[in-house]
Structures
1.
Amino acid sequence: MAQAPLIALAAGGTGGHLFPAEALSHALRERGARVVLITDERAVEYAGDFPAEAVHAVPAATPSGRSPIRMAAAAIVLAKGVFAARRVLKQVKPAIVVGFGGYPTVPPVLAASLLGIRTMVHEQNAVIGRANRFLAGRVDVIATGFSEVGGLSETAQAKCRQVGNPVRPAVVAAVSPYPEPGTGVVELLVFGGSQGARVMAETVPPAVKLMSREEIARLHIVQQARTEDEERVRGIYAGLGLRAEIAPFFKDLPTRMARAHLVVARSGASTVAELTVIGRPSILVPLPGSLDQDQAANAAVLEKAGGTVRILQPDFTPRRLATELSDLLAAPSRLTTMAANAKSAGIPDAADRLARLVIETAGL
């Protein structure tokens, strides 16, 4: 009996890359394919529950900063990663290698290209990341989350196929009708990931303090806060007599998103995808400082669709946020419209679309 085809996924670094890879793995395994994950040593500890028959770690590094010494050191690590990935690929013999961006993707995809194995990358953001841009000329297909992706050459654009951003099964399971707030309690969900929770802790509680007593009485807040900010945030809300749940991490974030009337968050590709699949209005604050400004581009797409209020971080002050929150509480029909607009921008079957494209590109 012939063995089922094997597909290698290359992802690591952050949940933003691992989550869509996890969703694709579920979709591929449902189709009878076997899956292995190739990641970097840092991500191995986070990949323990990844739906794959094996997880292989190879060296990877990010060439960042302007120091020639650090750039050279990263290049050496990446070269070691390519040789290590070649050994893994010769051992497992995949039909295709699919990368999800970030520098942990580079060694496996580059090694596959050198070995003549079919390759694909998935770009989650509205602007292509540096690792995927580096690989764009070598891969057979570029799958995209958004209909338009900035930063690509004409040659690379010709390889693009939009499939959307795959979301985890837990997100699809959480999909439910928008709970229209009317003039009642408004569930406000605030989170920002490891790089975004600090600005939320510094801005959201002072913004709420600026609101009227009547407005505060309508709020129920669920907020992610770093351990060092947790007690301070909890104390501010308690002093306002406000019902709030504060924690450094929520395992059931998709369920909480579905319960929310409004979400305040960063605009990573996974967050934007989950907001559109579940269909919830948001205030998005793009992470500043990235070379590609990918989060600003992601939020701009949802803003254009009418599903979010985009506030760049320099403008994300307590006064500005308090004004936005007050305006939305006063116009619940606007929240309902934003929810519908967000939902209209979603691609809930993105994992299935990507799985079909992977199988087609692999010639299976």
2.
Amino acid sequence: MNPLNTIVYEPFGWYGEKEIFKFTLTNVHGNYVELLNYGAIVKSIIVPDKNGIKENVVLGFSTLEGYIKDKSYIGATVGRFANRINNAEFSIGDKTYYLDKNDGKNNNHSGSAGFNSKVFDFSIEENAVIFNLENESGDGGFPGNLKSKVIYKWTDKNELKIEFLAATDEPTPINFTNHSYFNLSACAEKIQHHYLNIQADKIVESTEDYIPTGRILPAGKYSFCHNKLGEVMKDGGLNTYYVFNENKDDKNSVCELFEEISGRIMRVFTSYPGVQLYTGDYLNSAEIGDHSKFYQPFDGLCLECQYYPDSPNHVHFPNTIFGVGQVYNETITYAFDIMIAEN
């Protein structure tokens, strides 16, 4: 049993010639988070339900092999550019850059340059695990040598705080997020029974292959105001970008996810202008062995706080092109608590 208020790490396997470690961050209550330096992954988040039973509320695997084979970005840090880029290309000035077409004709989550399969260097401070990555210019077609940090902190208030930092030596698009799949019932049920609130009256209109048209529309039937997910998902799953209301600030939650039977609630705080809600429609990940796990559609949902999809190709979207001397610095906090539903 790990002592309380500690960060410890242990070997978790090898990826090529690089050793992978599992980091366990335990708070004063004995609740803990596990991380990997492969993909700067969130492996597990162990928090109590209303009866004090501690369970994992994110999808994850017990072996490194499960993550290496996974195609669903389970728990991963996503970069250099999260989400899709139309036709796998963008221009900066008069120069066009061509990326991997790994999602039909489009680029998704940076293709071969994706941080989800990179091995990060690491350091440990008193209350933080810091993952570092240097990504060379030209990787996956992206310009600029990029130096990145992903900083994780786990507080005594059961808050997983994530900070993304990056700097480049030539202009390049940057958009990081975390791709954890949450299920506050600890996978006792599918996500349709969760309640969700998103502080967003507008969404980014997208085509059938999730590429923005450039229009910002009222959320309408896709709005979430403490709705059951199943009620809004009547026509199938959701993979929708929500634009946070203009009165948002870093001190108030932008999303709340609640599961009634467990009593668990997760509040999301972020510096980003919006969130991609993905209900796990295409989940199809398996880990075969002593701890076999088979993840299928709607076993978990992602709340991927990030910049707008395909931003480099829409001049009226918030800018994601960062140049020399600029520092990319964004935050996401997932805060866990218990809420007893009123009869």
